[in-house]
Each structure stands twice: as C-alpha cells, then as structure tokens.
Amino acid sequence: MAIRGHGHLLSARYLLLQFTDSANGKAYLAELEPLITTATERKPDVARQLAFTYSGLQFLQLPERTLGSFSREFREGMTEAHRQFILGDFGEHSPDNWDWGNNPSEIHLLLMLFAEGEEDLQQLVDQELTRASAYGVKHQVSLPTAMLHDQKEHFGFRDDISRPIISELVKDKELGTTPTFPAGEFIMGYKNLYDEYAPSPLVEETQQGAEVLSGHPDLPGLVDLGRNGTYLVFRQLKQEVFLFWEYLKSQSSSMEDSIALASKMVGRWPDGSPLVLCPFKNDPSLAQANNFGYWDEDRDGMKCPIGAHIRRTNPRDHLVTETSKKDSTEMVAKHLMLRKGRPYGNPVSKGMVLNEILAAEDDGEDRGLHFICMVTDIRRQFEFVQNNWVNFHKFGGSEEDADPLIGNHYQEGSVVTDRFSIPRYPVRRRLENLPNFVQVRGGGYFFFPGKKALQFISKYHED
Q: Cis omega before residue 426 (within 30°)?
C-alpha cells in the first residue's frame, strides 16, 4: 500500500477524522477496508489510503502490549515538548501557531483520497464523508492538495526529483551506478541496512484475530502488525513565496542574480538541473539528474554550497564529519526517507513561470506543501535529518546557518541560525537575517498499515 504515489491522479484531498465510538469506528473501518487501494492496483481511477495516529489506535482499544510495541516517537507524538526542540518546532513553528495537529487527541485517522479531476474528487470526498458520518466518525479538517505544473513547488523550483529506489522493487537492470536501498528502510516486515527486520508493532499470536497476520521471523509467539506498513510523517508547510523573492531581490542587483542566488539556496536551478553538474547556468538536459555526488565533484561547496537545501537534506557522498567517500555514503544512507509530498493553494503563476512569480504582488493567499515521508524508524530517519542536518546551525562546518529554505531562522542568546554562507574565492559571501520562508502549520505521526493489519484493527475486540 505504501509504494504508490498516484502521480496520475492529479486531484487529492486529505481528511483528518476522529472516532467517537470504538465499536462504530471498527465497523466503519471494516466497511472501508475492501475499498483501500493496494500496491497491486496500477493506475486506478480513484484511490483511497489511510493512516492512524497513536491516539486513534488507543481509542480503538488495541491490546496494551501491541500499543506499547509501537515506537516511542509515534506514541509520544510530534508535539511532545522534547520533540518540539528536536524538530525545531518553536517560535514561529510552534504548535501553538498550527492550524491542526496541536491537540493530538482530536485526530485519529488520516484518510487520503485521490482522483483524476476535481469533479471526481468531490464525488469521492462526499461519498466518504457520508460513510464516516453514518458511523459517527467526525470530520475535523479537510486539506485540499494537487499537483502543480511541471513538478514545481510554489517557490518555482522543480521538486520531487530525488527519491530512494527500493532494491526489492527494481526490475530495470540498467540502473548502472544508481544506488538502491533495502525495503526495510521504508516498509516494515523486511530487512533494513543493518540486515535486521525493521522495528515493527507486534501482536501475540494467541490474540483474537491474529491469525490474519504473518508471524515474525525472529520472535516466536508474536505476529507482525507492521508488515507491509510504515510510519507516515505529515507536515503542513506554509510557503511565504513573496517574502522569499522579496528577500532575494533585496540581496541582488537584477532578476537574473535573484534567481542565481535562490538556486544557491536550493542547490538546483529552477528547472531541476543540479548546481554541482552545471554551476554557472542551468542545463535542461540535466533537469531530472539525480545520480551525482559531492565528494569528488564539489567537496568545498564552490559549486553547490554545503548548506544548500538539497545538500543538507541529502548530503549523498560527502559529510564533513566522515573521513572517506565510502563512510559518508554509508552514513547518509541510514537517514534517507521515502518522500511523497504535494502542494496546496493556488500557484502565483498558473504556468509556474518564474518571471511572473517574481513580478507578482502579494495576494495574501495561503499556499505551501504537504510534506509526507515514509520511514520505519522515525528517530533515525526523519528526526535525525530534521535535527542534525536541517536545523543544526553548525552543519558542514558552518557557524550560524540553518537550512536556508526550511530551517527555523532565529537569534536567541548566543545561538544564531539566520545566516547562509556561499563559498567563493577569495572571500565567501554571507547572507544575514533570513526570515522563515517556510512555516509549519500542522503535523503528526501516523501508522500506515498494510492490508492485513487493517483487517486486524477493524475486527479486533477484547475477549
């Protein structure tokens, strides 16, 4: 269920729901379960997928031992006090400012709906809200989302290029040197980079309804509730498009310079071509290029700054903390995520024409990105990247730089994170007083179940 992004279904809506009665909630899930789209269905006309919060699984009264077998991060939730510090969710990013997710007990279920067009989507949404209402399932929040023109996000840059390839799913033998990764990094029930089965929630095999689940290969007497499922991290990120380009224009002498400076922050030109392969001008033939590194090509960051967004979120084969290309590559591989995000809100330019975006006046509309990633270890993958690479102000030898795009920029006592350093000869360039171009407006940790797990959850009841 977790490996299809439904890119052919251009319209989508994310519904956040709350159960009001445990028995009715399970009856609702039992009716919905046969309609959930699985990985074997290729290019369906519509798609339905769902994921649970920990409070949702608690409300459905899963066995206590099973609830305790979920990861600590999932059980505590994204808004737990220490986790806010880890994720950089304070100041403007604080849950106090969120539109949803700041009260985890109010969100039990995420229902993701996809269709080819808006009319079909609305019919699907109406159908599912009617179904939910019949079982007393409350509709809390509706999050419209869609695909933007030419795969570009609201700032005007091509997005969704870099994505890990799962070894077990590869059929194309012509990948060459493109790295692949074991399924257990992203899907439970399979082995990960440590040659171990990914951590997974468990059920005692004697539990009522457990016969539908697969046994755990390493743990006799227990069956695997997580198999073919994963943890889903959801973040609603508001993008301040006009603030972003106004700041860049204030630091530049021309529109071309503004675009070049923005590209330094991102690490790619707006069309997607990476700076490390074409540092002086974009190359349309490289717009989808992803098989490159930094250790040999740009270790000093003269082409693509070490603090650039794509280099911080995926340092590939170069980490200044490692002493070799091999060590860097192996370390980075342990922190990758399967990312499937979609934008929301109207684009500033319908055709995502960059000159039109730069020339437009602030329309006050809300727009941004629904960031979704799938991992089997929230702490090792998502939280590590967010804490150690995105927000850490000394990443890569920097001194006061958070991620220039999505980092939390602030000055608090001796800690300064609102700088961006651009290596160049003979003297580096340094931008200061970066505002927050992206602001968190909602989020949560979810369990995205496999089909058999969903069957168990919907049918389980205490003896």
A: yes
Amino acid at 381: Q
Starting at the edge strand found earlier in the chain, the sheet holding 214-215 runs 202-204, 222-224, 214-215
Cα separation, 66 vs 232, in Å, equals 18
Q: Give the pLDDT confidence of 425-443 residue by residue, as tens digits.
A: 888 999 999 999 999 999 9
Which structure tokens are listed for 392? 């850490």
Q: In this structure, which long-range contacts are made by residues 211-219, counting pairs with CB atoms below 8 Å and at least 24 apart in sequence?
A: 212/452, 212/455, 212/456, 212/459, 213/452, 213/453, 213/456, 214/189, 214/452
Tell me: pLDDT of 74 over 70. Answer: yes
With a cut of 70, say whether residue 461 has pLDDT above it. no
CA distances for 4 relative to 47, 114, 131, 362, 447, angstroms: 10, 12, 24, 36, 16
Burial state string for 362-391 with b = 16 or more CB within 10 A and e = fewer than 16? eeeeebbbbbbbbbbbbebbbbbbbbebbb
The answer to whether residues 151 and 158 touch, using CB atoms and an 8 Å cutoff, is yes
Measured distance CA(9)–CA(113) in Å, rounded: 10
How far apart CA 156 and CA 149 sit, in angstroms, is 10
pLDDT at 145 over 80: yes
CA-CA distance, 2 to 169, in Å (whole number)?
Answer: 12
The 10s digit of each residue's pLDDT in 188-220 is 999 999 999 999 999 999 998 999 999 999 999
Q: Residue 338: phi, psi to the nearest 5?
A: -90, 105
